[in-house]
Give the backbone structure.
Amino acid sequence: INAIGFYTRSLAMNADSLWNDIESIRRTAPLVHNITNYVVMNSTANALLALGASPIMAHALEEMESMTAISGALVINIGTLSKPWIESMHAAASFAARRGLPVILDPVGAGASALRTDTARALLQSGAVRIVRGNASEIAATAGQQAQGKGVDSLMDPEAAAGAAREISRQFKVVLSVSGPVDLITDGTRVVRVANGHPLMTRVTGLGCTASALTGAFAAVNPDPLAAAAHAMATMGIAGEIAAAQSAGPGSLQLHFIDALYQLDYATIARHLRSTEAGPPDSGIGRSTWWWNAA
């Protein structure tokens, strides 16, 4: 157990551990409850299905307890907020915490408005959230730091938000997954960087939200939130690379991305996975840095 109480392994990710989680998702089809925005409901549901999970999109306050009772994870995405939805988010988070379910928060557009930033902070302060997945400006804004964003898009590199990510992780005992050209995932002690992905992915709306939804699927089968978050980001990046190689533009990328998720196998992961991991000086990994593969 690390300093903030998470289950840990000496290494959060390699091709074997990532493939084991994908097999678990395909074998058990965990139900992932999403309270998410109107823009991405269809695309995130299809991505979860393609990976092997089972999605449900529900936001009515009256059914939060029932939905949480049958789910393996809860994903809260604040992309299209309203007061009734915020009430449902808090209720679902509370029910999930009581059941010990992993809760993933996507603070979409935090920093763009006080409502978004305050809602993200309030959900963090509830103590129910285990993983926060967002872009660098959203993470910086959620930490109360100066953020550089344009609406829901980030103008910051994940490394610029590394300090904010560590601060949030240690303060709220959560894993931070910061997306960008090289994704940064940390539990405040260990840091995993994932170098998979393709620039064309930034031209398709909702792929960040999809990453949060897939994080829910991985968290449903893996008790280590750092590994679950890193595995989700690697899966997104690898599928994005494969899709981009077959696509003429962002329109066809969306179709090929879903197919790539569905067709992922161990050999493909081993060829494509590019990640590093570092730990503190007194950890079992002694701040070692490693790369898996690189075809």
Remarks:
- The longest strand covers residues 31-35.
- The chain has eleven helices and eleven strands.
- Residues 124 and 172 are 7 Å apart (CA to CA).
